[in-house]
Design a protein that fits this description.
Belongs to the glycosyl hydrolase 42 family. This is Beta-galactosidase. The protein has 661 residues and is α/β, with parallel strands linked by helices. The chain folds into three domains: 312 residues, Alpha-Beta Barrel (TIM Barrel), CATH 3.20.20.80; 201 residues, 3-Layer(aba) Sandwich (Rossmann fold); 56 residues, Immunoglobulin-like. It contains 17 helices and 25 strands. The chain has a ten-stranded mixed sheet with strand order 11-10-12-13-18-17-16-14-15-19, sandwiched between helices. Strands 5-4-3-2-1-9-8-7-6 form a nine-stranded parallel sheet, covered by helices on one side. A four-stranded antiparallel sheet has the order 20-21-25-23, covered by helices on one side.
């Protein structure tokens, strides 16, 4: 399928006369795909069993007759009022066992019998109606599924059933969780419940398993809908629009059976003061999304206007931002970019989460920018179709590490798993070195360098996979808080980094949770760098030190090491240095591995490469509001202008260039 631009549209909020006007303008603009019906359950089933799809038939026809493809959504995110009133088991309960009343959306227990019963009937009816419609190309299940704790009777029973599949007996559960602490042992399965009350802290093994259960419960809600859609709609794709990272769901499991990953992407970072948190997290989000199934993806909601619903209205996208961020998603693997949304809502909770056309109903600057983008993508979409991203650097991401470290913060201030992963990713981003961010259980074939942030939970399989990778010539970079626990969230009685100590050639003799206290490290050239969060005091067991602590009682103790392992090597970073140290360290490794890009990128310019056969497409995107100069290594041809580039190329504020040799 050629790369295209789409629109999110809510026909239930507008009159049929407005549909016609909107569809005509979409056709003129070059819109290829329209997504609809994700929140329209009450309009499609106003009372139980009374299915009314005629209005949706008419809306689909308005766009289909103008050659636009349709993506339909199952509306299980918004159960109607008649449903939650008649079937109260549909509503979730909080940890005090109080019902969480209907709100804006997402007001459902994922394990509810009534939700499955009524939802199955509805999805069956809807999918049968549109399974053979020539313009309906696929389905989105639900909307932005999210982790939700529920403590109702159904979830309590489901949690116990889930645990029984993971533990052979209650005795094993008691032993594995260490419930003997604080007299927490269970003598009967009837005593096991979801984590009730607000007492903290609770048993970390218990809490981790509960969060895994909650993530699996979301998969259950998705799964029964997927079964119906697969049965009734074999010729149509099925996906789900995940929320951007960080997120509390295990998307690797959630997307296993779906055709591709979709993401809702709302970057407007020019106006946000993140400090050191999530530096350029937009690129990380896209690399994470691409890594879930290790293939291209869709953007199902793309920023089109100021955001304001859950917060005060944010600033409007800077001129050029809509176009630049849309091309950024394509550069990093998106094959479809659907914009949220065509028009700002006149009613409801999201009135000020603005779309392409404001409440004036007059297309303005943002719409003109969208139209320019659509023309460009339509012109180049066929050429770029089928191109993919192939990288030789991987960063391993683990949902379980994120969850476990969130349950037990390891140091005061800023020691967050995703933040730390982001700061390492950012070093490669600044160099222009493409990285795949993949599940930590994936095979590592085809990579030369693998970055492994804090494997707090570790098992033999993961340790052996990393050891084999290094022994065969790969380079592994480990960080502190590796090997602390097993997969049950129980501390290992081993010197850190646990199962990887031999591969790293070091052991941790002591550690210091320094938090926000700034320490210094010194490299072999005598340069010093700030370091925070953590200090592992390393004893050498075959590794060579390449940086040492430069203050405190452990001045002179190794802080960063490298160990030869077979044909490769394993680095160990015992603290968390400032970004310039990561950049310098990784720059040396990528040069040694012949992975360094030939282009030197100025601050704020991203490089991504898509390839198709022997042809490569270089995307250069300036994500700052100032112009930047890029020095090229060859006379490339611009796909946007068809002109040959000069050696020094000027990218304007939020400028985009797509080059090929």
């Amino acid at each position: 399928m050629t790369i295209k631009i789409g629109i999110d549209y809510y026909p239930e909020q507008w009159t049929p006369e407005q549909w016609e006007k909107d569809a005509a303008l979409m056709q003129e603009t070059g819109v290829a795909v329209v997504r609809m019906a994700e929140f329209a359950w009450s309009r499609m089933e106003p009372t139980e069993g009374d299915y009314r799809f005629e209005w949706l038939d008419a809306a689909i026809e308005v766009f289909a007759t103008r050659d636009m493809a349709i993506v339909l959504c199952t509306p299980s995110n918004t159960p109607p009022n008649w449903m939650t009133t008649r079937y109260p088991d549909m509503l979730p309960m909080d940890e005090q066992r109080q019902i969480i009343r209907p709100g804006v959306r997402g007001h459902r227990c994922n394990n509810s019998y009534s939700l499955r019963m009524l939802g199955s009937k509805f999805v069956e009816a809807m999918s049968q109606r549109y399974a053979k419609h020539p313009s309906v190309i696929g389905w989105q299940i639900d909307n932005e599924m999210h982790y939700q704790e529920c403590h109702c009777d159904t979830c309590n029973r489901a949690f116990v059933t889930w645990l029984k599949k993971r533990y052979s007996s209650l005795e094993e559960l008691n032993r594995e969780w260490g419930t003997v602490v604080w007299s927490g042992e269970y003598s009967s399965w009837a005593e096991v419940t979801t984590p009730l009350g607000s007492s903290k802290p609770m048993n970390p093994s218990y809490l981790l398993e509960y969060k895994r259960f909650c993530s699996d419960s979301v998969g259950y809600l998705l799964g029964w809908q997927l079964d119906i859609l697969r049965s009734n709609c074999p010729g149509q794709f099925v996906t789900h629009n995940m929320w951007q990272y960080p997120n509390s769901l295990d998307y690797y499991d959630l997307y296993k059976e779906l055709d591709f990953v979709s993401v809702d992407y709302y970057p407007n970072e020019l106006y946000r003061d993140y400090g050191d948190r999530f530096p350029r997290n937009g690129a990380l989000t896209l690399d994470l999304v691409r890594g879930i199934k290790r293939r291209n993806f869709w953007v199902m909601e793309q920023l089109s206007g100021a955001q304001g619903a859950w917060m005060p209205i944010q600033r409007t996208p800077y001129p050029g931002l809509i176009r630049a961020r849309s091309w950024q998603t394509i550069a990093r693997g998106a094959d479809m970019v659907v914009h949220f949304r065509w028009r700002s809502a006149a009613v409801g909770a999201e009135q000020f989460w603005l779309g392409l056309i404001d409440h004036s109903n007059v297309p303005g600057r943002r719409f003109r920018e969208f139209a320019e983008l659509t023309r460009e993508v339509n012109r180049l979409g066929e050429l770029l179709a089928g191109s993919t991203i192939v990288n030789q650097v991987a960063i391993l991401h683990s949902h379980d590490q994120h969850t476990a470290l969130s349950l037990q913060p390891q140091a005061e201030g800023g020691m967050h798993y995703i933040d730390n992963l982001s700061s390492m990713h950012n070093a490669f981003l600044k160099m222009g070195v493409g990285t795949d961010v993949i599940n930590w259980t994936e095979a590592l074939d085809g990579y030369k360098l693998v970055i492994v942030p804090s494997l707090f939970l570790l098992n033999e399989a993961a340790a052996q996979r990393l050891e084999r990778f290094a022994a065969r010539g790969g380079t592994v970079v480990l960080t502190n808080r590796t090997g602390v626990k097993n997969m049950r969230n129980v501390c290992e009685m081993l010197p850190l980094p646990g199962l990887l100590a031999e591969a790293a050639g070091v052991v941790v003799s002591e550690y210091d949770a320094i938090g926000n206290s700034e320490h210094r490290i010194r490299n072999a050239e005598g340069q010093t760098f700030a370091a925070k969060q953590w200090s592992d005091l390393l004893e050498l067991r075959g590794a060579e030190p390449i940086a040492w602590y430069d203050n405190d009682f452990y001045e002179g103790v190794p802080a960063v090491t490298v160990n030869k392992l077979g044909d490769g090597e394993v680095y160990y970073i015992g603290t968390w240095p400032e970004p310039s140290y990561f950049y310098q360290l990784f720059e040396g490794i990528v040069k040694e591995k012949d992975l360094a890009p030939k282009l030197q990128l100025p601050e704020g310019v991203e490089l991504s490469i898509r390839t198709k056969g022997e042809e490569s497409f270089l995307f250069l995107i300036n994500l700052t509001n100032e112009q930047r100069e890029v020095t090229l290594d060859a006379p490339y041809r611009s796909l946007l202008t068809s002109k040959r580039s000069e050696q020094k190329m000027i990218l304007p504020s939020l400028g985009v260039e797509i080059l090929t040799l």
